[in-house]
Write a structure and sequence with these properties.
Number of strands: 0
Structural class: mainly alpha
Order of helices and strands: HHHHHHHHHH
Length: 162
């Protein structure tokens, strides 16, 4: 059978959409859904979480996030801590580090590009934050990850479009 131009791209995106919908449905029915997912449904926290996720490189402050949520700084910080089990800036750091690990694993960006996309002023600031968070520098983490057989296979799949 011949495939139409763009067919594989459409099928890939369709699979992505179906996976997201399945995960969302599972989370909606589960009392064990991740805290960030539960908090994103809270009208007081959802706007701030969406903002942090949409623009992790921005130099967010608690007062800015509180204003987005329509709360005072103290109320926002208290509600955030109760809902997510950590302070807003710690959550943002964790989110940035999650994105950084994804970028490092993909191996497509330089440390300077990763630092810019994750809100650090320089590759040195990013490397220092990464080391504090993970105990090893980002380059060493990337090397260790690339010797992990699952990571190597995932990188090969990305290269070959699987």
């Amino acid at each position: 059978a011949t495939s139409a131009p763009g067919q594989q791209t459409v099928l890939d995106r369709l699979l992505d959409v179906l996976l997201v919908l399945a995960i969302r449905a599972c989370f909606q029915r589960s009392e064990h859904a991740p805290r960030w997912y539960q908090a994103s449904a809270d009208p007081r926290l959802g706007p701030a979480l969406s903002a942090m996720h949409a623009d992790p490189a921005r130099t967010w402050t608690v007062p800015e996030l509180a204003a987005i949520s329509g709360l005072s700084r103290a109320a926002f910080a208290r509600i955030f801590q109760l809902a997510l089990g950590q302070a807003p800036m710690q959550y943002l750091t964790d989110w940035r580090m999650t994105l950084a690990r994804d970028h490092l694993r993909a191996g497509e960006l330089t440390l300077a590009q990763i630092s810019a996309r994750t809100g650090y002023a320089s590759p040195y600031a990013f490397a220092a934050a990464f080391r504090r968070h993970h105990g090893i520098p980002p380059g060493q983490w990337r090397q260790k990850e690339m010797t992990n057989p699952r990571a190597v296979q995932a990188a090969a799949d990305r290269i070959h479009g699987a």
